[in-house]
Design goal:
alpha/beta; 8-stranded mixed β-sheet; 11 helices; about 40% helix; globular
């Protein structure tokens, strides 16, 4: 496949069952191929364990370019933020130790979440969520939400998040993640590029987003995920313009987790409007 064809359908943000997705890395690759993805990144939360399988599957399905990735959970000014690392060496010990330190705190958080839900009459969530999780240290709010839907607490995982698992709701607990500086350093140490994931999802003011993007730039960040499955067309234009202003590249990804749950399926990552002159992070991934 020529370089030009590799850029036909880019999706640089997706998840497998190694974090909070529902498909194996091989099945994500198969779905990406069936949706004509030509450059694909698997970027599981705080985990690189599925990347070897994903890379082999990408070769088996003849996906033009596989990009090994990771999505790191961080905390910035008391706000939970995600940083995607692209084109990483997933055998790098600094990165592996860094994301392991994050995973080690997930189970303790899950125990606290379950106790909070018990206070409002919702029992057995931890045990139920663990049955949906490949690794107990990878347990996430998504696993909680899926189990709670199965128990009839709400009809959709989105409703569970809105009513139980976000700040101010009964199942949410604070947790100390890595720092913005840590995440960028781990990614760069592994030879990768650091991307601020889906900025439109963070429940902060426009001024705070500007500060976050400026801090990200100052600490050596590489790109903003302007084209996200979470973003409206207006947000895509806004974050592309902001990236250009800060001298950052742009990225795009569906943030695919599940055929039933995700707002955007893999391969349908929003495109950056061509009239907005920009540098695509994908140009640095060949």
């Amino acid at each position: 496949m020529s370089n030009n064809n590799i850029f036909n359908n880019i999706d640089l943000h997706s998840h497998s069952l190694f974090s909070d997705g529902v498909l194996s890395p091989s099945d994500v690759a198969k779905r990406a191929k069936s949706h004509h993805v030509t450059m694909w990144a698997l970027s599981d939360h705080d985990c690189v364990d599925g990347l070897a399988e994903a890379q082999q599957a990408a070769e088996n399905f003849a996906i033009g370019k596989f990009v090994p990735g990771v999505e790191i959970s961080i905390e910035w000014n008391d706000v939970a933020i995600h940083i995607v690392g692209l084109n990483i060496d997933y055998q790098n010990e600094t990165l592996k130790n860094g994301v392991k330190s994050i995973r080690d705190g997930r189970f303790a958080r899950a125990e606290r979440m379950s106790k909070e839900l018990e206070k409002v009459g919702i029992h057995g969530v931890l045990d139920g969520a663990l049955k949906l999780c490949k690794n107990p240290n990878q347990i996430s709010r998504a696993h909680f939400a899926r189990f709670m839907v199965s128990q009839g607490v709400a009809k959709t995982t989105s409703q569970i998040f809105e009513n139980y698992l976000v700040p101010g709701k009964p199942g949410y607990v604070d947790h100390k993640w890595a720092s913005l500086e840590d995440s960028i350093n781990w990614i760069h140490n592994a030879g990768g590029l650091a991307v601020l994931a889906h900025p439109g999802r963070y429940k902060v003011s426009g001024t705070a987003i500007l500060r976050l993007c400026a801090d990200f730039k100052d600490l050596g960040g590489d790109a903003i995920e302007a084209g996200s499955g979470s973003h409206s067309n207006e947000q895509i234009r806004s974050y592309t313009t902001l990236a250009n202003y800060l001298g950052l590249a742009v990225s795009c990804g569906s943030d695919f987790h599940s055929p039933k749950e995700s707002k955007v399926d893999i391969g349908n990552a929003p495109k950056i409007p061509p009239e907005l002159k920009h540098q695509g992070i994908w140009e640095k991934l060949l």
